[in-house]
Design a protein that fits this description.
The protein is of the alpha/beta class and 322 residues long. 27% of the residues lie in helices and 29% in strands. It has helices at residues 110-115, 117-130, 147-159, 170-177, 193-199, 217-222, 246-251, 266-279, 281-285, 302-310, and strands at 2-8, 13-19, 29-39, 55-57, 62-69, 81-84, 93-97, 101-103, 138-142, 162-167, 183-186, 205-210, 224-232, 255-258, 293-298, 317-321. Strand 13, helix 7 and strand 14 form a beta-alpha-beta unit.
Amino acid sequence: MRAYWMNTSDTEARIELREAEVPEPGPTQLLVRVRAAGVNRGEFIIGGLTKAGSAKPLGIEGAGEVVKVGAQVTRFAAGARVMGRWPGSMAEYVLAEQAQTMAVPEGLSWEQAGALPTTYMVAHDMLVLQGGLKPGGWLLVTGVSSGVGVASLQIAKALGAQVIGTSGSRAKLDRLQALGLDVAACTRQADFQPQVMDATGGAGVNLVVNNVGGTVFAECVRCLAFEGRLATVGYVDHTLKAEIDLQALHAKRLVLFGVSQKLTSPAQKAEGTRLFAEQMLPLVASGKLRPLVDRVFPFEQMPAARAHMEANAHLGKIVIAV
């Protein structure tokens, strides 16, 4: 089979297409013929999901057909349409743990299914499991046009919340307003707090999703309401340090948290998958949640897909058709 790998130095992440044997599933695993896989910026940030000086299979999510199952697999059989967060999914075949695999809802295309697991499960973690976002609450998303940003917008609207989003592209914000974005702040600078306070009547937002990084962290804190929460999920600005206003943290009873699967245990990953399937997949099945796919690239054009992502030209998710 063909599979993409990534080799990293201290400053560069290089993509390599390799030939490999089709793997055999272990007792709790499925062998999946991959049909689509999502492209994720975090994989290419050295020091983030990827360690400098390492080589690893590329891909962290996908969708496809079950080919073979391990002896202890009971939930899926050959031919089933499945999706999940699967390491090494940027390949023609991948091994998937049963506990981290979900059935593809009816009506979802391969490309939509391949775009769903990572960004929507991350958004669910931030907004529901850790963020406690309530109907009528306010959410601020920096970099709202990203895959995680769009997923956060869609889940928040499904929950009945109100959303403020920042982006440097007016055209992208205009398109997202059609998806329910309540307030569009067209900026790439840390200057959006006045607009946030104006929209919320001076109260601030209940939850912030920071996709951008350290350059806007302090501004995000300034936007929080009493007992507000701030989720850090990305740092596309490559700024990993920021000042914290301890007085605001203390007086306003703020909560700062991160969202990453890098250090979670298999049991934690399994529980996150179970809760997402239980709480969010009904919304996907009903059509209330639909992944926004920006562009689909053929498998052979993975380097072009990466370039499209790094040019910040996309809105939503970039997907590879395998």
